[in-house]
Amino acid sequence: MAAVPAWIWIVIAVVAVLVVVFVVGLVLARRRRVTIAPPATPATPVAPEGKGEKPPTKGGYRTGGSISFSQGSGAAVAPKPDTRPKQPATPPVPPAVAVPPGAAAPTTPIPTVPPAESTDVPLVPAPRVEAPPTTPIPLPERTEVDGQPGVGDDAAVPRDSVRDAVVDVELPGAPAPAVEPAPAVEPAPAVEPEAPEAVAPVVPAPATEPAPPTVAPVSEAPVVEVPPLAGPAVSPEITAEPVAAPAPAPVVEEIEPSAGRLSRLRGRLSRSQNALGRSLLGLLGAGALDEDSWTDVEDTLLMADLGATASAEITARLRREVAAHGVTDTASARALLRRVLVEAVDEGIADRSVRALPHDGRPSVLLVVGVNGTGKTTTTGKLARVLVADGLQVVLGAADTFRAAAADQLQTWGERAGAVVVRVDAGADPAAVAFDAVKRGITDGADAVLIDTAGRLHTKSGLMDELGKVKRVVEKQAAVDEVLLVLDATTGQNGLVQAKVFSEVVAITGIVLTKLDGTAKGGIVVAVQRALGVPVKLVGLGEGADDLAPFESGAFVDALLGE
Ligand SMILES: Nc1nc2c(ncn2[C@@H]2O[C@H](COP(=O)(O)OP(=O)(O)OP(=O)(O)O)[C@@H](O)[C@H]2O)c(=O)[nH]1
Prior knowledge:
Elements: H1 6-32, E1 69-70, E2 76-77, H2 195-199, H3 261-284, H4 291-303, H5 308-325, H6 330-346, E3 364-369, H7 376-389, E4 394-399, H8 404-417, E5 420-422, H9 430-444, E6 448-453, H10 461-474, E7 482-488, H11 493-505, E8 510-514, H12 524-532, E9 536-540, E10 548-550, H13 553-560
Helix pairs in contact: 3-4, 3-6, 3-13, 4-5, 5-6, 6-13, 7-8, 9-10, 11-12
Bound molecules: guanosine-5'-triphosphate.
């Protein structure tokens, strides 16, 4: 056998090397290939939209269709129906984020991308992912999110807008007693138990009987004498045709004199307020005060809403007085505290009288302004009572045409006090109502015209402009003598913000601090007077018709100190 030439061995070796290289390359190439098939079980299961719960994001919020939006009223708005396409792999971007009371408005949307661990999710092409909704729900316009309720919140949904419906009811065939029938009288068989209540608002009471307002014996024709409770005696021929009986004269109530009211109501103030007095007296009466004690005094004043500057000044003043004269016992501590607090409350205030007396042959004109729900209508009604009790003739202007029931509410106050009420339908121009009220006051020769205005959203320039217009229109007939800003004492420092904004739109001349019966923060009196430079003239100490009192610094401080 002939020897194989060397070159053949060389060729065989080269071919063998090439084959090895090719095979190794093929194996490596296969290993580097990306798998595109989805795994059997995704690492992060995503519930179908609108059915299951979405993974929570930061702050406890949940994305998806059940996000509630706060409106100005703080009332949750029902979420809009979710019409977005289903996106199993990618959670949708929420159109807006609910702002909880007390939280700062978020400036960036809540992250909705999958969390970090979603890197486990394989790279899946997402052909069905569609664009987010093209009409996002706008964020509410509220810019003030400090948690205080009611700052113009009702501007969107008047709080009692559902109450003013007139219900058509079937009239009963016989007079229906609203009170328990006397045992001797047989009840009329045809009377439905619900009838008296339902009928009362729409049927006038009989002209002949001064019946209570809820008694509405509708079958009483003027010519038929029917004893109020003698249902069975009514003739069957007398039908239940509505009879145009003259409206009953409104029962004007007896009004409590305003003098000494603050003393009478002091108990209410004390109950909520004297925590301040007690702790101050406790600190001062304890004898030698160290630095910590003085810090506690200042903190106590701060917590009662006196404001930082006033608290510091009062503390410094107390320190000086204690250093100069000493405090030997609780009585001397109380006397010192009283003097210093009264001075603080009266600082810069010369006159707390309400300018409600007629002058120059025309009535005085008072405008009652403030944020909704602070007690404007109630205060207007209470003030009307005081004026009427003092023998003045009063006209009330229902210029709160925004809240449907406000005019009704004022009318009731007017009827009870014996004051004329000028009103129009809800939604009319408030400036026109105010104008008419003043005109009526002048024509009637009234002594005072009180104009109740709608709650203002102090962050909304449109509504605030409207308030300015009311004042300007009124002034075409007569100068406005008093602009009373009604502040709810329970809103604390937020009241100061409102006060400042209102004072930029209309010149406030006096403050009415309502709901002082429900807060331990009476120090707001000092803070708001300092902020506006106008006096607190009246205080509201309850929901009762006569729970409005003149503000008196001495009596107020006595109440704080629990005397
Ligand atoms: N406890 C207490 N409640 C008060 C006082 N003054 C008013 N209220 C209550 O506060 C609520 C709101 O009073 P309104 O007079 O309707 O308030 P408003 O400012 O006219 O409200 P809008 O018409 O919505 O702007 C009512 O339930 C009143 O009875 C007060 O001094 N003490």
